[in-house]
Design brief:
The structure is a single chain. The protein contains 12 helices and 7 strands. Helix 1 crosses helix 9, helix 3 packs parallel to helix 4 and helix 4 runs parallel beside helix 5. The N and C termini lie far apart (about 95 Å). By secondary structure, it is an alpha/beta fold. It has a 7-stranded parallel β-sheet, sandwiched between helices. The protein is elongated and about 85 Å long.
Length: about 300
């Protein structure tokens, strides 16, 4: 089978983890894959690994000019055919309590996980069929969200905001692109065993240790790393992406969680205030509040004693 006879898919963030698993799965199923990376060494490594059915694209999703150049490169390679799919997988996670998270870090989170996705969609949508008819049926867009796009977690507020935004972005985009016959499917992974957990284990939390959230943030970091390493592998997400691209009638959302009821269905059924209480209890917030009150009373008592002694 020649390159020209294979349907092509673009996968962003293809260097490791979920992105690399998607590339491997799609190539195994007969697709030609363009994978975006940010480093030339990653491009060379993936090219050697996947061979003739893979072509690297050099861009960061936040670089609009580089994204546009990559889209032109793909268009030239397609030779008038339609792109079968765009998998928006690239993203980052910026942890930290919102009260103490530097605004520039929050902005970087949104710029990468949300604004960057819009730039990629706008650049590649014409190749998927969002213009005059081309050769082949319209393609599909697969946006990599997260269960964090439906259920917020303390100390991941910036990441939650980006994924909640991506969920709404995807719904609006899906309805707008119906006019072209382009479908939009959201993948919602829970914890997945990828190299991101090695980064989380080494994340610098020292600037949060000085805040009241320090101990709880460290607990969340420990739970996340342990849970991430024990989670299903990225091939489970790749299977969901393949389903999104090839199923005749894929659902609008495909969760990928180890225990769908406990990890996805039940949290959506519980009252928000109950979830708040359970979360605070698990993080030890009640004890922290008691200590705050005790310290405040002690400070007041000391101040009153000083005034009476004058």
């Amino acid at each position: 089978m020649t390159r020209q006879s294979k349907r092509a898919v673009v996968v962003t963030g293809a260097s490791t983890g979920i992105g690399a698993a998607c590339v491997e799965m799609l190539i195994d199923r007969g697709f030609f894959v363009f994978g975006s990376v940010r480093r030339t060494e990653d491009a060379a490594r993936l090219q050697a690994r996947f061979g003739a059915d893979f072509a690297p694209l050099m861009f960061d999703v936040t670089d609009a000019s580089a994204v546009a150049r990559a889209a032109q490169e793909v268009e030239a390679s397609l030779g008038g055919a339609t792109l079968a799919g765009l998998v928006n997988n690239a993203g980052i996670a910026v942890p930290g309590p919102l009260l103490h998270l530097p605004v520039e870090d929050f902005r970087r989170q949104i710029e990468t996980n949300l604004v960057g996705q819009l730039q990629v969609v706008q650049a590649f949508a014409p190749l998927l069929g969002a213009r005059a008819p081309q050769g082949g049926p319209p393609g599909r867009i697969v946006n990599m969200s997260s269960v964090a796009g439906r259920f917020a977690t303390p100390f991941l507020g910036a990441y939650n905001a980006s994924k909640f935004g991506l969920e709404g972005f995807s719904d609006a985009l899906r309805r707008e692109l119906m006019i072209y016959g382009i479908d939009v499917i959201v993948i919602e992974p829970g914890m997945i065993a990828t190299p991101i957990w090695d980064k989380a284990d080494n994340a610098d939390f020292t600037h949060f240790d000085r805040t009241i959230y320090g101990p709880a943030a460290r607990r969340v970091q420990k739970w996340a790393v342990e849970g991430g390493h024990a989670a299903p592998g990225p091939e489970k997400v790749a299977e969901a992406v393949l389903r999104a691209l090839t199923s005749p009638r894929p659902p609008a959302r495909i969760p990928v969680v180890a225990n769908r009821f406990l990890g996805y269905t039940l949290p959506g059924l519980l009252p928000a205030r109950l979830v708040d209480w359970l979360t605070a209890r698990r993080l030890g917030f009640s004890e922290t509040r008691k200590k705050l009150r005790a310290d405040a009373l002690q400070s007041q008592s000391t101040a009153d004693g000083g005034e009476n002694g004058q």
